Amino acid sequence: MASKKSKGAMWIIMALLILGLGGFGATSFTGSVSRVATVEGKPVRIDSYSRELQNQMNQLGQQMGQAMTFEQAQAFGLPEGVLARLVSNRALDAEADRLGLSVGDGTLRDQILQIQAFQGPDGSFSRDSYTFALDNAGLTEEEFESDLRAETARSILQAAVVSATEMPATYSDTLVAFLAETRQVSMIRMGVDQLDAPIPDPTEQELRAFYEENIDDYTAPEKKRITYALLSPDALVDTVPVDDSAIRQVYEDRIDQFEQPERRLVERLPFVDEAAAQAARDQIEAGETDFETLVEDRGLTLNDVDLGDVSRDDLGTAAETVFEANSGAIVGPVDSDLGPALFRVNGVLAATSVDYGTASLMIREELAADAARRAVQAQAEPAEDLLAGGATLEDLAAETEMELGTVDWYPGLSEGIAAYADFEDAATALSSDDYPEILQLDDGGIYAMRLDEVLPPAPEPFEDVAERVADNWEAAQTDDALTEKAQAIIDRVEAGETLEDAATDMGLTVMVEPQVTRNGAVLGTPRGFNAEVFEMEEGALTVSQGFGAVILARLDAITPPAEDDPRATELRQQVTAQVSNALSQEIYSAYMTDVRNSKDVRIDQDALNAIHAQFR
After folding, report:
1. Pairing relation of β-strands 219-220 and 35-39?
2. pTM for this one?
């Protein structure tokens, strides 16, 4: 176990080493000072620190899509993180020395020979490549081999700490029992159809009382009153000219789209010879197999044999046979580019022909939309200049084709300009300190906006929400009536009747869910139903409301996972691996902290400052 982990750690180190050597051209530092820190007298070299810091900045810069400045690196804590890792590594090196761990010359040689960066064109070790790579990395052979020897010994120490760390079986079994056990539940689902009598129509007084009792449900959120100037392509699409010759050219370029021959949706399964193909066809006709099974038996998928929609020209000599077949038919063997094959026809697509008159209307709309977007973009810079010169949104609407509007915006509003995701993002960040500027919409439109005021949360007038109040009142009354009915069943069960007898007497049906899982969901039940069931004791009853219904549930049985259940076995393996890995990491982290704290660490802040100055 330890040997395997040690070897795995070794290859990780090799990969990191090659990656480090790949960062040729990193900032070079020279001078009389050669180290940024020492740990028990072992140096953390300036070139190691600068190279690792440069690599980290490059990697994070790639993720950001731009070069990272040193100030940004400091904000992310990269310098501190790099120094901490290098100091920790040196502390482990010192601990390895104390324990007498070392790597022989033969092992070191074998590792160097395996590093791809040191290999020549023929794949074997090249002294020239070795020297060239180390020179570009700013390392001498002595430094590199010393580092590699230390890293190898360090990996052995690390593997020794984390190897053979495994949670006790009792812990895993307990977790698996908790996660994999199931419940059998009997349920009665009652909806509007199970009401003993219809809900009477409410009076206005009842609705107003309900409105007041649930005023939070009818309180509008905080809103931003925003004035905006907008120019969308739709506003210009009817005004931009479209050249008829351009329409004709697009039609001719896309003639294959408007004039399509008859086609078929086809799958093709080729065979080595006609005898094999005929034998497969005979099996299908005899009902001994089907097309899907033949495909699977060949180690293929339906995607592998799918030709999509094809014309006669695409099928060559097989065209006549395939095109005479109806949808769903299997034909063949017939010759194909890949030899004798069976074809399955999945669909018949009739020939299509769109005349120029019809096609030109569609093309005109497309070209007009493109021209309108370009026209809008052409007005973006002049509009920006007007705003920069002190123009208001009202001035912008008066002097350009942009239209002035106002919206009381809040998160989730999806009407008008608020339907644009770009607008929602900008409106969320908009403050009274922001000056209007030209912004882009995803359809090519432009807009500018201004925050006029923030409207605090306020109840919506009863008249505006009366219909919603009535619907909510009816739903609440229905839930109450059905809950009373469920309670009546519970009372009868507690008095000695069975749930099944009480349900039958009331014209209700008991449904049984034999395997309710902890993290699953039962169709037609509200959120949290499964969690509630797993808190119940056997025989207990509970009432839940949701999805326009009331559910009365009884817990019938608690079923632990079977020992031979393959799902439980797989879950046990996953849990053991995950928990053991987490434990290994925690043990190693504690060990690393203890090792570092026990060593004499000296940081040369002047050297660090000098390096950081060259990064700026």
Report:
1. unpaired
2. 0.49
